Recover the amino acids of this structure.
């Protein structure tokens, strides 16, 4: 038997998949127990020069390729919701195994793919959807299946991590750091999906779904990006012995699960604090296993293609044995809690009038909302003063209400920044 593969997409990742399929053909045959043959590649422009890839493999009709009777496995690296969803549902319903790196589709409508996989008796693998080459999803899906995961905290977007790392290292502002990331190829010409947190939110939904056996979509994820993080914020974090990272945080409690993406200060002693450049890392906490950390390159053609081929070996072995992987595990069906119910801490920088009674009045606002203050630092500047307040843990809705009331006070000239504090 030969495992026949159809590839949808031949961009940065797809071209690396083709290269590795050729270079590692003998190893793949030995690991799977059968040779792998690439029988077609669906692209937008079939006549584009793609090096030494045989031109007769290319087609612009992705659906016809998916429907071919001789195709065993469909690999999708196109991205986006539609038409990718239509192609993959068709493949799965017809019994073809699917390997995808499409985080946006999985986060928006992974249920449709999982249901089609069950109905078609096919495998659905997607290691490449989160954190590139880092073996992360399979440990959550298989290795830790006998444990109860309580929290997943991760840096899952390389672009934002590069930007924040550059700001921390050089003192640069956000715009300058973004320009550097763009010049080096870490940021897209339109970086919105990365810097506004959409990419990380999709990945957070996938991680939470696997970790907590509950369907979580991107719409369930609270999201903030890094565009409002300033050089002053980074300096303030440094003064506290912290660093700012864009974190995805998924937590299981007795009430349900919370899933959020936002910039946060974490202590420099935290394992995630030293993750620099465009690297990714995910910190997993489980009741029996304790603390685990997964680290590596989270993006790029070759790392992502590595994850795709890892899935291909698993899928190929299953097809030879006429078995399929375990289906979606969503039995827990836990409620997803609103952000307001999440316990967190705030770092708040206030520009206030430097006069008697101001500090007491500010403290009174926190007290009215049931928020306890951990530390206060004040520095003078003429008739103004800068108050930097760090709270104890409180419900996010109470912290937000506190900030909202502070904005109404005459002696508060401005609220320079509000950042969450995590990782103690």
């Amino acid at each position: 038997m030969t495992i026949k593969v159809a590839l949808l997409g031949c961009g940065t990742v797809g071209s690396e998949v083709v290269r590795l399929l050729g270079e590692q053909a003998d190893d793949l045959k030995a690991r799977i127990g059968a040779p792998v043959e690439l029988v077609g590649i669906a692209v937008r422009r079939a006549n584009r020069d793609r090096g030494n890839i045989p031109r007769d493999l290319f087609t612009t009709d992705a659906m016809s390729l998916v429907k071919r009777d001789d195709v065993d496995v469909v690999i999708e690296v196109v991205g986006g919701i539609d038409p990718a969803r239509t192609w993959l549902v068709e493949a799965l319903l017809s019994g073809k195994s699917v390997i995808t790196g499409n985080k946006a589709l999985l986060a928006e409508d992974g249920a449709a793919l999982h249901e089609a996989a069950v109905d078609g008796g096919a495998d659905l693998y997607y290691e490449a959807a989160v954190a590139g080459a880092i073996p992360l999803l399979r440990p959550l899906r298989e290795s830790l299946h006998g444990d109860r995961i309580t929290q997943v905290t991760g840096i899952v977007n390389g672009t934002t991590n590069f930007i924040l790392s550059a700001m921390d290292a050089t003192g640069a502002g956000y715009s300058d750091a973004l320009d550097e990331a763009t010049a080096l190829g870490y940021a897209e010409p339109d970086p919105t999906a990365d810097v506004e947190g959409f990419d990380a939110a999709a990945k957070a939904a996938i991680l939470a779904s696997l970790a907590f056996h509950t369907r979580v979509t991107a719409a369930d994820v609270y999201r903030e990006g890094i565009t409002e993080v300033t050089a002053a914020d980074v300096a303030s974090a440094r003064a506290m012995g912290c660093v700012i990272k864009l974190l995805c945080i998924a937590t299981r409690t007795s009430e349900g699960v919370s899933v959020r993406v936002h910039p946060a200060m974490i202590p420099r002693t935290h394992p995630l604090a030293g993750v620099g450049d465009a690297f990714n890392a995910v910190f997993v906490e489980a009741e029996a296993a304790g603390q685990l950390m997964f680290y590596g390159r989270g993006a790029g053609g070759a790392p992502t293609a590595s994850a795709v081929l890892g899935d291909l070996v698993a899928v190929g072995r299953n097809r030879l044995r006429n078995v399929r992987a375990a289906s979606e595990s969503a039995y827990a069906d836990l409620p997803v809690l609103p952000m307001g119910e999440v316990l967190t801490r705030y770092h708040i920088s206030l520009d206030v009038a430097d006069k008697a009674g101001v500090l007491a009045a500010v403290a009174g606002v926190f007290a009215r909302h049931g928020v306890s203050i951990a530390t206060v630092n004040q520095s003078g500047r003429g008739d103004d003063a800068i108050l930097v307040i760090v709270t104890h843990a409180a419900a996010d809705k109470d912290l937000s209400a506190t900030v909202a009331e502070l904005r109404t006070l005459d002696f508060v000239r401005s609220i320079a920044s509000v950042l969450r504090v995590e990782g103690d």
Observations:
- The two ends are 54 Å apart (CA to CA).
